[in-house]
User: What shape does this take?
Amino acid sequence: MATIGTDITYAFELLNREELVAIPTETVYGLAGNAFNALSVAKIFKVKERPSFDPLIVHTSDLERIHEFVVDIPEKAYDLATAFWPGPLTMVFKKKAIIPDLVTSGLDTVAVRIPKHALTLELLKSIDFPLAAPSANPFGYVSPTQATHVNEQLGAKIPYILDGGPCQVGVESTIVGFHGDEATVLRLGGCKVEDIERIVGKINIRLHASSNPVAPGMLDSHYAPLTPVRIGNIEELIAQYQGKRIGVLSFDRYYDGIDPINQFVLSKKGDLDEAATCLFTGLRQLDMLNLQLIISEYVQDIGLGRAINDRLRRAEAKRN
Ligand code: TXA
Ligand code: MG
Assistant: This one.
């Protein structure tokens, strides 16, 4: 198992030796390596068992440092950066050659983010390269939102997990791409579309599937637990699947007819932000109960509800 701790100096040493370190962010934990070093980046793909067509996000601490590895930052991106960085927003820019092609799966663009987590920002400031970091889970599985989640799945393959406590946002960053100065949301996530629109006006949402070369990584079956998931009206689904070992992941209340041990309520007070924070913990807990089916429901499609619904839809898409 990996060592878990808060030793930034040790994390710094490992990263300088081309090793990987799991890092906390406000969204989910990342599996980090030197983004300028192809060997480190190759290790990330290997540890995650991630296909090489799925590009990584590059994390840094300051807007000024981004110029070192991107060609051009559109005006709207500056506005978004000012409003939301550090924070749960990733933006895609034309890349410079210093970023190895492996990071971007051969694309001429690179996804960049300044995460909002004190420990990780301190680490990023101390090193002289940015960190490539996908979510620290095996490819296709639910992202980790606690250090122990990382240790359970990748602990045998990495030396160190920087423990920053439970992630405050709980879903991955919102990804925004640019065509000229026109912004498009490519992945729904922790930065609310409504907040983005307050800065740049009405924005297109074009969520890509595996067939879309713009972001090859957004497979429909991402973020999925191993247990099959069905989404709909929870009471109807419970009736429909009577006799099966069922778990329920609900928005705000417990349901009759299912052992409460097999139920996870995302937010008893019905708050979408709180629901997002514990979504992946809920999916993980239910996934460990050896159930035949996890039943869940969509939430209101506003604010972080959009990201929650997106992850639930992808979790259900995994069924076979
Ligand atoms: O919140 C997050 O974004 C977390 C934390 C660790 O920062 N990271 C994360 O990384 O979710 P990952 O690898 O699980 O998702 C990265 C996704 C890729 O699957 C792809 O869809 C998109 O970012 N991406 C990366 N590079 C891209 C590019 N050049 N153009 C378009 N999309 C890109
Ligand atoms: Mg991921």
The chain has two domains: 3-205, 229-317. The CA atoms of residues 35 and 131 lie 5 Å apart. The two ends are 32 Å apart (CA to CA). The first strand starts at residue 3 and ends at 5.
